[in-house]
Design a protein that fits this description.
244 residues, mainly beta
Length: 244
């Protein structure tokens, strides 16, 4: 017997389609100096939000000082219309408690990524992230990884002895919050990469390789290779607080 379906069947969008849609919104973060060799240095990843001129990345990826005397400037790098582009960026604000930074570009507009809901995320769900894992080594070719949410866990683990607590970690102990732990490997250049739903492309977190790992794994002599992400609700609060 043949069963007929009254409604047409549609295939769910594939991860490949989602990656192709999201890649134009993802940029490398770094600095540009005209007379330096190399002139461009990649430090992290970022992604466009809002009107397409706003870029979210990690605060720890932004240099504290620039060599103004030699014209060093904060910049973003991306590939568009078959051309590698360098655009000077301005740092608008940082949220150091959640290791977030907001940059702005004036010379171009990128397709903004859609922000999802962090409250809908469950352990065991599969997500993907795209960024620049090894800085300039791979050029302006963003790389995609995928993995499950292996745990939703506090951003810092209380230590057994107060002597183990660094000053930077003290405030985090007073106001802990949950982060996403992933079973996929991220690298330092992945900091600031969007963690997104493989079908909808909506961003549910920001990859953080350094800030969270330092707090979670300070008792270890070597990093574990576990990756973490800051939930997107902190990005939404950050943008709202700054009037965006």
């Amino acid at each position: 017997m043949v069963l007929l379906c009254s409604k047409p069947l549609y295939a769910e969008p594939s991860l490949a389609d989602t990656v192709a849609k999201n890649k134009p919104s993802i940029v490398a973060i770094g600095t540009y100096m005209p007379k330096r060799n190399p002139r461009s240095i990649f430090m992290a990843t970022g992604f466009a939000v809002g009107d397409g001129r706003l870029i979210i990345t990690n605060a720890h990826a932004i240099p504290e000082t620039l060599d103004i005397e030699h014209l060093e400037q904060l910049a973003i790098f991306y590939h568009k219309d078959n051309v590698d582009k360098v655009v000077i960026a301005t740092e608008l604000a940082t949220d150091k408690d959640h290791d977030l930074a907001l940059l702005k570009i004036n010379d171009d507009r990128l397709p903004a990524l859609s922000l999802g809901s962090a409250t809908s995320v469950r352990e065991g769900q599969l997500y993907a992230f795209t960024g620049f894992p090894i800085g300039m080594v791979l050029g302006l070719s963003p790389v995609t990884h995928r993995g499950i949410i292996s745990a939703i866990t506090p951003n810092i683990i209380p230590l057994s002895h107060s002597t183990q607590i660094k000053q930077a970690q003290f405030k985090r102990l007073q106001e802990p919050y949950s982060v996403f732990q992933l079973d996929a490997t991220a690298y330092p250049g992945n900091s600031g990469s969007p963690l997104y739903h493989p079908e909808t492309g909506q961003v549910i977190g920001v990859i953080n390789k350094v800030f969270v790992q330092e707090s979670k794994e300070s008792a270890l002599t070597k990093p574990s290779g576990i990756s973490y992400a800051i939930p997107i609700n902190y990005v939404e609060s950050f943008l709202k607080t700054k009037g965006y």
